[in-house]
């Protein structure tokens, strides 16, 4: 056959296919649809066949008969009678081959009258059989038979029964069967194909015959209509009117021709974004609908919105009438027809979801689509559909609509998301009128397609640009974290499974904290891995994947803009700015059509061929349709030349069409580009010219450094900085993470300026490695030995894999150690190395600017950063422990086996056994975060199982942070309060060496007060006695500290454990309350507060048993108190009496019960026995004051650290 060679010749369509009923084989049940014999024959499905295809085969796209037959009519043949609705139905499908290439199918299914007598008789027979079976299964009771026979004279029982079962009577009914016409195309021009098929169907159903035989139109679409090249539009003729399609250029988003509008109408914005998130995280998705085209539209839209990522197939479209889901299936279920979505568990939120939804909603509302979707059968929804944005605004001007345009939509009032959006709109002060683009202003456009079609193009591109913008913003700097393979492509491909291709830890360390739940999971998906693999495989532009090329050009543009106005490093939402440009490109293609195809014409057909019968799609003449005009060499040779000529003309007219401002802008951009390219030649000029040329750039870098350091300090100091007049309230609240990432960007730009030769992707890391190499070659007495260690530490961290990642981790670690300025000063002190690496005009060789830059960085030492510890949470860190026992009281005689457990904000170590008589040890475990508590104890074995521990020190060997955990108490039975384990609360120590060595005039840092634990001496009775005023003050300060803690923004809060159990914490203050006026015990016997509480508990339990109930409120308090004391006494832990008291106070604070318990104990008879008359607990005025102070804690949700309440289940 003729159809060209094995490569595709660029035709619009490859095949025209007709599917339907094969009268020769008759009715065959469709096994693929499952057993459906219980259905009435009209509701059953039968096998359809491919009746004809034109041409028979093309080499570049072999015809797959089974796939096309099944996808054209997925449910097989359907039969109907004149009583049923028989509207034609359009749907599309995709055939994916083993090599991943795709072919697109577009199918129109309609109904034709069955003319075959055999088929009608077969259907009648099936009905008789069905009714007979039904009668056997449903035999009516005997007395009903008589009543049945009495009405036999009407139509007879068989007819009345047939009426009940969607009946078919051959003498009375007309039988119709489904038939399908289909186009198979290499590209997805859905709208154009739909028009072609609809016009062909119209030709056989309209009373007037078409102007030409149908063969002429089908021949035209198969052989004479070309595929438009990228960036061009095409016009060709259908049976009744012109059809237009346009294809995006290689610099635009890929071709997508399905209506996005329909998806948002069916599901609403919130559901679309949730479904989109599920698809990105590769959850299995089940789409359910009664309409094939809806399934296809939703699936293709979600896939297209993922640009630049490619969907890995886990989406199951389902058209079953009944669906049962397994309960345990953790998938995303979408009922498209009923506006319903069921999400999988633990679905993280898409970054900036609220602002993202707002941006999409603004576009939808401008097109008259309510953001929560068009709920069916809803009158206001249908009104909304027809509402135009310009009508809204003009109405408002005339006073017809009160308030903002949002208020006019009754539909939106009930929607939660829209309510949040409204609040956001008000807060940002944006007027919705300004936001909504008025598409009515495009009246003067003379686009070749219809207005409705143009609006579909507009909405599609606007929504797609907004979605694409999210990824260009999120992954703007992804390139530097790609791990390029060291070996050649083939061996890399062989070992692909074992290879890491992306430095995930470093990339995540740069991201704003709210993004992390989503991004950490997204980076693990197959689609992200494939995307990075593509990037690695395509080294040069020519072999780059087209999608990747478009994405990379967008990323480059963002980064170029970001150098001038750094906005990338902020969790602030960046709106899409590319909409106008993308819209303009489509508009230009539709205003001026690039190519008009040959019109359909009469073919060389025999006389009598090409006739048709009304209502029946004819059997076409295969002899004229199977051979194309391949013999016409002139058209074939000339087609590409014709497009090339068009290209040249188009470029010329594009330049002519620009107005003066635009032309000037392009010329200026070209000049700027030229000047930047010429920049390296500066080194040949005189120093004064170099200085003058570079002064502005260097000044800009310095100014940015000054602004950044101030911004970061203000952010770190939070409200305190605002109160001191160093910033505005709205400047705070930006992620610390993103500010530090922004500083890393700045350092990279400074280190990249004026480089002789760029080595690797990170200029800073390259410089550090050179410096380290020099030091190892010629060791000198320098104070940068720590930097050498840092480099080794960072290099040994397996999670950080790229140079950029290592440089960023090094900056974070240096900031956390308060050594960044000092390290960089030391790095730049090697002038010989700096000269070797940098040109004369480089920033790092401008001495004054360099000094100022280092001075700005020095200001970071004023605040504590944990930017390394908090970001690299999964790395292994060595910790050094030192236990300091009392020197006086025989620590060397200790015989028991000690253990320790260290807890931090991120995790805890679990119990670590300490070898006997070993007081120092180093161990490695996953990052614990900032350390909070240490649990220390022993197993009470041996002759001398008594241990007096002064304090414990723990040092993080990477960051150098040292924590001190004061104790000053015995651990041993019969000693002190009999405790075998204690919970110690720690505090970070300030390094003395750092304060001494700092060579600057700023005053030294205030050191953290070393923690004097509340039991310094052996006997608690030797503690200093406080008067009631001092005790009240201590309580007030402790409670005030907790209140202040909760009033701070979350990221500025310190340790709550310290405020509860620390030196001046709530536990210590309440201990003073209960010790005041405590009766002195007999000689050699210590009495503890816990003894008093246990007696009170026994008293209340006795009362409860005797059912002496003063009042219900009092009884509830007593019962809760007894329950907590009993639970603490029953804990398997060997904590002493003071440890138990601490636990009770912490639990009481958590459950807001402390003030109830104080009131209860003040009235308890046991108090009278164990306290003197002057005791605070007996003074009603002071007790009431104490209760009022403790009541202020009720409004706070206190969460206790696990180590404080371990072993308690209340």
TrEMBL record:
One of its GO terms (molecular function) is small GTPase binding. The keyword Ribosomal protein does not apply. InterPro entries: cDENN_dom (IPR001194), dDENN_dom (IPR005112), DEN5A/B (IPR047278), DENN_C (IPR043153), PLAT/LH2_dom (IPR001024), PLAT/LH2_dom_sf (IPR036392), PLAT_RAB6IP1 (IPR047277), RUN2_DENND5A (IPR047295). Residues 30-545 form the UDENN domain. GO terms for cellular component: cytosol; membrane; trans-Golgi network. Residues 877-985 form the PLAT domain. Keywords: Guanine-nucleotide releasing factor, Membrane, Repeat. It is found in: Membrane. Belongs to the RAB6IP1 family. This is DENN domain containing 5A. It comes from Gopherus evgoodei (Goodes thornscrub tortoise).
């Amino acid at each position: 056959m003729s159809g060209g060679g094995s490569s595709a010749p660029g035709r619009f369509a490859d095949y025209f296919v007709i599917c339907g009923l094969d009268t020769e084989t008759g009715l065959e049940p469709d096994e693929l649809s499952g057993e459906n014999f219980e259905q009435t024959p009209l509701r059953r499905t039968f096998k359809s066949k491919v009746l004809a295809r034109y041409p028979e085969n093309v080499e570049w796209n072999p015809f797959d008969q089974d796939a096309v037959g099944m996808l054209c009519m997925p449910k097989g043949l359907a039969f109907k009678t004149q009583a049923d609705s028989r509207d034609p139905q359009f749907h599309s499908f995709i055939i994916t081959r083993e090599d991943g290439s795709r072919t697109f199918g577009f199918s129109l299914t309609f109904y034709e009258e069955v003319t075959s007598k055999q088929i009608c008789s077969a259907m009648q027979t099936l009905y008789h059989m069905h009714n007979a079976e039904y009668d056997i299964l449903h035999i009516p009771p005997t007395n009903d038979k008589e009543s049945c026979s009495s009405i036999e004279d009407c139509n007879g029982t068989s007819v009345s029964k047939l009426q009940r079962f969607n009946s078919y009577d051959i003498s009375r009914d007309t039988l119709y069967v489904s038939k399908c016409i289909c186009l198979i195309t290499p590209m997805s021009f859905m709208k154009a194909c739909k028009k072609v098929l609809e016009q062909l169907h119209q030709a056989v159903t309209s009373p007037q015959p078409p102007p030409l035989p149908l063969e002429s139109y089908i021949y035209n679409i198969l052989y004479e209509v070309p595929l438009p090249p990228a960036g061009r539009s095409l016009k060709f003729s259908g049976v009744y009117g012109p059809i237009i399609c346009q294809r995006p250029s290689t610099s635009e988003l890929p071709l997508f021709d399905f209506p996005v509008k329909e998806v948002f109408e069916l599901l609403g914005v919130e559901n679309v974004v949730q479904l989109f998130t599920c698809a990105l995280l590769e959850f299995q998705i089940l789409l359910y609908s009664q309409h094939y085209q809806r399934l296809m539209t939703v699936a293709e839209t979600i896939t297209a919105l993922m640009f630049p990522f490619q969907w890995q197939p886990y989406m199951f479209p389902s058209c079953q009438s009944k669906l049962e889901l397994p309960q345990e299936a953790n998938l995303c279920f979408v009922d498209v027809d009923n506006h319903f979505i069921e999400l999988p568990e633990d679905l993280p939120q898409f970054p900036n979801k609220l602002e993202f939804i707002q941006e999409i909603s603004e576009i939808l509302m401008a097109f008259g689509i309510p953001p929560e979707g068009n709920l069916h059968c809803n009158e206001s929804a249908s009104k909304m559909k027809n509402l135009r944005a310009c009508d809204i605004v003009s109405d408002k001007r005339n006073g017809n609509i009160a308030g903002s345009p949002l208020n006019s939509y009754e539909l939106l009032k009930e929607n939660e998301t829209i309510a949040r959006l409204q609040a956001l709109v008000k807060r940002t002060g944006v007027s919705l009128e300004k936001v909504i683009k008025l598409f009515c202003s495009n009246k003067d456009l003379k686009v070749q397609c219809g207005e409705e079609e143009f609006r579909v193009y507009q909405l599609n591109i606007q929504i797609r640009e907004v979605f694409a913008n999210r990824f260009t913003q999120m992954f703007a700097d992804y390139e530097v974290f790609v791990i390029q393979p060291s070996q050649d492509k083939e061996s890399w491909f062989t070992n692909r499974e074992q290879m890491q291709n992306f430095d995930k830890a470093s990339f995540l360390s740069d991201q704003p904290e709210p993004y992390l739940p989503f991004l950490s999971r997204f980076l693990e998906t197959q689609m992200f891995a494939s995307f990075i693999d593509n990037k690695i495989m395509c080294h040069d532009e020519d072999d780059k994947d087209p999608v990747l090329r478009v994405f990379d050009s967008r990323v480059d543009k963002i980064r170029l803009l970001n150098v001038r106005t750094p906005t990338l490093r902020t969790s602030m939402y960046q709106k899409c700015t590319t909409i106008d440009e993308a819209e303009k490109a489509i508009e230009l293609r539709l205003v001026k059509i690039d190519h008009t195809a040959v019109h359909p014409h009469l073919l060389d057909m025999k006389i009598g061929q090409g006739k048709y019968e009304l209502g029946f799609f004819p059997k076409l003449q295969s002899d004229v349709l199977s051979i194309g005009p391949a013999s016409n060499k002139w058209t074939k040779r000339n087609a590409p030349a014709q497009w090339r000529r068009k290209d040249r003309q188009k470029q010329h007219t594009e330049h002519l069409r620009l107005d003066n401002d635009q032309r000037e802008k392009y010329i200026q951009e070209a000049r700027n580009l030229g000047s930047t390219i010429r920049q390296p030649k500066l080194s040949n000029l005189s120093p004064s010219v170099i200085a003058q040329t570079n002064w502005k750039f260097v000044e800009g870098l310095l100014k940015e450094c000054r602004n950044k350091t101030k911004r970061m300090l203000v952010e770190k100091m939070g409200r305190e900085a605002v109160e001191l007049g160093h910033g505005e309230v709205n400047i705070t609240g930006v992620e610390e993470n993103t500010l530090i990432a922004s500083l890393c960007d700045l350092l990279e730009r400074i280190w990249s300026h004026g480089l002789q030769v760029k080595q690797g992707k990170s200029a800073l890391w390259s410089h550090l490695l050179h410096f380290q190499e020099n030091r190892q070659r010629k060791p000198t007495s320098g104070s940068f030995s720590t930097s050498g260690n840092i480099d080794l530490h960072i290099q040994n961290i397996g999670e950080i894999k790229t140079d950029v990642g290592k440089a960023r981790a090094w900056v974070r670690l240096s900031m956390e150690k308060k050594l960044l300025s000092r390290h960089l000063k030391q790095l730049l002190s090697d002038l010989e190395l700096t000269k070797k690496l940098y040109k004369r005009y480089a920033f790092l060789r401008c001495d004054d600017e360099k000094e100022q830059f280092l001075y700005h960085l020095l200001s970071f030492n004023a605040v504590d950063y944990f930017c390394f510890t908090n970001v690299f949470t999964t790395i292994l860190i060595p910790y050094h422990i030192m236990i300091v026992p009392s020197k006086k009281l025989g620590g060397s005689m200790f015989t028991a086996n000690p253990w320790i457990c260290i807890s931090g904000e991120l995790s805890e170590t679990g119990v670590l056994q300490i070898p006997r008589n070993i007081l120092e040890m180093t161990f490695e475990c996953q990052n614990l975060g900032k350390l909070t508590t240490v649990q220390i104890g022993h197993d009470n074995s041996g002759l001398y199982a008594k241990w007096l521990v002064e304090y414990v020190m723990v040092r993080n060997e990477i960051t150098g942070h040292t924590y001190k955990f004061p104790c000053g108490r015995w651990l041993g039975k019969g000693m002190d309060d009999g405790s075998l384990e204690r919970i110690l609360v720690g505090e970070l120590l300030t390094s003395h060496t750092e304060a001494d060595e700092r060579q600057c005039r700023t005053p030294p840092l205030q050191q953290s007060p070393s923690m004097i634990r509340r039991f310094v001496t052996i006997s608690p009775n030797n503690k200093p006695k406080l008067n009631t005023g001092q005790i009240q003050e201590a309580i007030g300060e402790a409670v005030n500290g907790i209140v202040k803690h909760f009033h701070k923004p979350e990221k500025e809060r310190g340790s709550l454990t310290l405020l509860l159990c620390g030196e001046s914490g709530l536990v210590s203050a309440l201990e003073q309350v209960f010790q005041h006026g405590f009766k002195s015990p007999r000689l050699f016997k210590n009495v503890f507060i816990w003894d008093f509480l246990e007696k009170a508990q026994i008293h209340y339990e006795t009362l409860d048993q005797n059912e002496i109930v003063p009042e219900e409120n009092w009884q509830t308090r007593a019962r809760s108190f007894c329950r907590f004391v009993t639970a603490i006494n029953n804990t398997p832990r060997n904590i002493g009496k003071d440890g138990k008291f601490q636990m009770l106070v912490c639990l009481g604070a958590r459950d807001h019960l402390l003030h109830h318990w104080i009131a209860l104990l003040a009235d308890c008879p046991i108090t009278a026995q164990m306290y003197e008359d002057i005791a605070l607990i007996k003074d009603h005025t002071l007790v009431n004051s104490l209760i009022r102070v403790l009541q202020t804690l009720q409004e706070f949700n206190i969460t206790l650290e696990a180590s404080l309440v371990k072993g308690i289940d209340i």
